[in-house]
């Protein structure tokens, strides 16, 4: 899995960087500025750093928080026997505390000026006040801020499936309390994990659908506490089932669009604009599969879209990198990226997965 860890993390940042200048543009404007999607490259400028958005910033916040909580040792290869100890350190209390710290640090970072979502800003400001996170979260929000940042969770070695799902949902729930935000983050994590562990592209959507169906009534109370009780749902099982059902419908939309497989069609028109969590996931999966997983084609197709281009391309790039590895991202692209040193350090924290 080692090749998948830096491949996925750099893929997220590359997709984010490619989608950054196209977000909020329509297709005619994107084509006029950047040409057809097949010719689109990383927006390099001589002597300059390629900027990313809050998608990469918050993904790094999640990953670095998890390292601080015990998931890995930066810059060192740990013996495989330590994996269980690392996983054991990641309890709901340690993960929540580390995420809270890093989310608040992101809130006050002077580089947090890339049009971040209001849900993340409001919830992180509430987290700073020290109140229980279930009170800080925005219960009605299922924006893609919940899962645009979840990729690192899938790449931690040694986690069991329940722990991985619990962490994925908790990191979402700190800001986005809607059940679909939780389910979409869990499903995004599982997609990345499947691809990093050799899942064939043709099997991906069926395996994700099976996972979603099997997860419909699993409420991770250890990780989520009384979050469901703060909703209008009659019980925790019904609360989380609503989110999984919305994700299942989004997977169906992607599958239907892929039956036509028109690579020239705007992905946001084919599946959805991606401003909400389940659409960002489904549209990113569509971009991965419509070009048969070619990494540079994946991020170009995703960035060349009329919706939330940076978030769609960030997830699509993370999927492609998990599947194909670091070698498919040009070295000059990686070297030019903002935060490339932090991305490399985060990947190195988990290099015992080799």
Overall 3D form: globular
The CATH architecture: Orthogonal Bundle
Number of helical runs? 19
Q: Low-confidence parts lasting 5 or more residues at pLDDT below 50?
A: 75-85
Radius of gyration: 18 Å
Q: Any idea of the CATH topology?
A: ADP-ribosylglycohydrolase fold
CATH C-level label: Mainly Alpha
Order of helices and strands: HHHHHHHHHHHHHHHHHHH
The profile of the biggest β sheet is: none
Number of domains: 1
CATH superfamily grouping: ADP-ribosylation/Crystallin J1
Strand content: under 5%
User: By helix and strand content, what is the structural category?
Assistant: mainly alpha
Helix share, percent: 55-70%
Q: How far apart lie the N and C ends? A: 6 Å
How confident is the prediction overall: mean pLDDT? Answer: 93
Report the count of strand segments. Answer: 0
Structure overview:
The chain has a single domain (4-353), classed as Orthogonal Bundle (ADP-ribosylglycohydrolase fold), CATH 1.10.4080. The protein contains 19 helices and no strands. It has helices spanning 4-19, 27-34, 54-69, 83-89, 92-108, 118-128, 133-136, 151-155, 161-173, 179-196, 201-215, 221-224, 236-260, 267-270, 277-290, 295-303, 309-324, 331-336, 340-349. The protein is globular and about 50 Å long. It starts with a helix and ends in a 5-residue tail after the last helix.
Structural features:
354 residues, ADP-ribosylglycohydrolase fold
């Amino acid at each position: 899995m080692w090749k998948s860890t830096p491949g996925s993390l750099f893929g997220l940042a590359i997709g984010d960087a490619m989608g950054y200048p196209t977000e909020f543009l329509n297709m005619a404007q994107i084509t006029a500025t950047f040409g057809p999607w097949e010719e689109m490259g990383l927006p390099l400028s001589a002597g300059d750093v390629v900027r990313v958005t809050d998608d990469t910033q918050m993904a790094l916040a999640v990953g670095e928080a998890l390292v601080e909580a015990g998931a890995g040792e930066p810059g060192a290869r740990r013996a495989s026997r330590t994996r269980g100890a690392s996983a054991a350190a990641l309890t709901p209390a340690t993960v929540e505390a580390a995420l809270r710290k890093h989310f608040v640090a992101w809130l006050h970072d002077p580089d947090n000026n890339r049009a971040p979502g209001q849900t993340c800003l409001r919830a992180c400001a509430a987290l700073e006040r020290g109140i229980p996170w279930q009170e800080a979260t925005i219960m009605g929000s299922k924006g893609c801020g919940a899962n645009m940042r979840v990729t690192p969770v899938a790449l931690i070695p040694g986690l069991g499936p329940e722990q991985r799902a619990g962490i994925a949902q908790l990191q979402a729930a700190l800001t986005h309390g809607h059940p679909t935000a939780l389910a979409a983050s869990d499903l995004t994590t599982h997609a990345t994990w499947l691809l990093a562990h050799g899942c064939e592209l043709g099997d991906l959507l069926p395996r994700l659908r099976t996972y979603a169906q099997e997860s419909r009534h699993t409420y991770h109370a250890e990780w989520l506490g009384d979050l469901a009780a703060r909703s209008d749902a009659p019980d925790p099982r019904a609360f989380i089932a609503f989110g999984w059902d919305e994700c299942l419908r989004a997977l169906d939309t992607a599958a239907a669009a892929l039956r036509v497989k028109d690579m020239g069609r705007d992905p946001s028109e084919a599946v959805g604009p991606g401003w909400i969590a389940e659409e960002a996931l489904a549209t990113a999966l569509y971009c991965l599969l419509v070009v048969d997983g070619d990494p540079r084609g994946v991020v170009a197709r995703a960035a060349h879209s009329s919706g939330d281009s940076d978030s769609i391309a960030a997830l699509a790039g993370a999927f492609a990198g998990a599947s194909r590895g670091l070698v498919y991202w040009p070295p000059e692209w990686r070297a030019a990226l903002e935060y490339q040193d932090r991305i490399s350090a985060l990947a190195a924290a988990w290099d015992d997965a080799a």
